[in-house]
Structures are given as structure tokens and as C-alpha cells.
Amino acid sequence: MKKPQNGVNQQPDLATKSLDNIRILVVDDHEIVRKGLHALLSEQPDMEVVSVASNGEEAMQMLEDGLQTDVLLADLHMPGMNGLQLTQSALALSNKIRVFILTLTDTHNFDQTAKEAGVSGYISKTEDFNALIAMIRSH
């Protein structure tokens, strides 16, 4: 424990995350979703949100500029570059990135399309947050 000048013990700095954490880039055109996912994912001891983007083009610019991420968590429907187009572009840049798609759309007929694009997994925005965490950790 750190001992400040006032003599009160403090916990070590927990803001410094392990190098083994899952690094996540969150991409969604809705600010409330971006901020909510950032807050919830950042609470996970093995996850680190390295950045957020409001659209596919912004996310690709970050990746092209060298942002290091393990997971791209993207909305399916965004203005401009949608989640599947972003998946294909991101995987062309680095095949090590795992892409997970969030959607409000019925996922019934989405499976084949997602696989063809290279998506690692997808989940409805109506699912429980723990299902999202489990999906990210399982891949």
C-alpha cells in the first residue's frame, strides 16, 4: 500500500491495467451507447477500452494511425461505413482483430452474412450485458 504524507494508507493505483487485458475499440453512432459501453467494459478487470469512435470511418482512421486493439465492438447500422463494411476493412488491415457486432436488428438471417464478412460474433443490444462480456472473453 502507498502511504501518503498524511499517514493514511491507500490502495495501489488500480487505473494501471495489465498488459494481458483485452483491448477494445467501441464504435457506435449513438453517444449514449458509446459512453455506456465504455463505462461498463472499463469496470471489467481484464478489459480496457482503448478508444471510442462514432462511425466506421473514424474507427478505421484510428486503426490506420496505429491504434492497438484486440477487439472491435461495433454497431451494425451506422451512417456511412456500417459494421460489416468496417469488419472487412479492419480485418484487411489486421487479421488479428476480433470483431463483434451489436445490433437491434433481428439476427435470425444474419449468421451467414456475418461469417462471410469475418465477424467473430454478434449480439442483440437487447441481450444482457453479461452475455456480451462472455462473448468477448470466449474468443
TrEMBL record:
It comes from the Bacteria. InterPro entries: CheY-like_superfamily, NreC/VraR/RcsB-like_REC, Sig_transdc_resp-reg_receiver, ST_Response_Regulator. GO terms for biological process: phosphorelay signal transduction system. The modification 4-aspartylphosphate is found at residue 75. Pfam families: Response_reg. Keywords: Phosphoprotein. Residues 23-139 form the Response regulatory domain. PROSITE patterns: RESPONSE_REGULATORY (PS50110). The keyword Phosphoprotein applies. This is Response regulator receiver domain-containing protein. It comes from Pedobacter psychrotolerans.
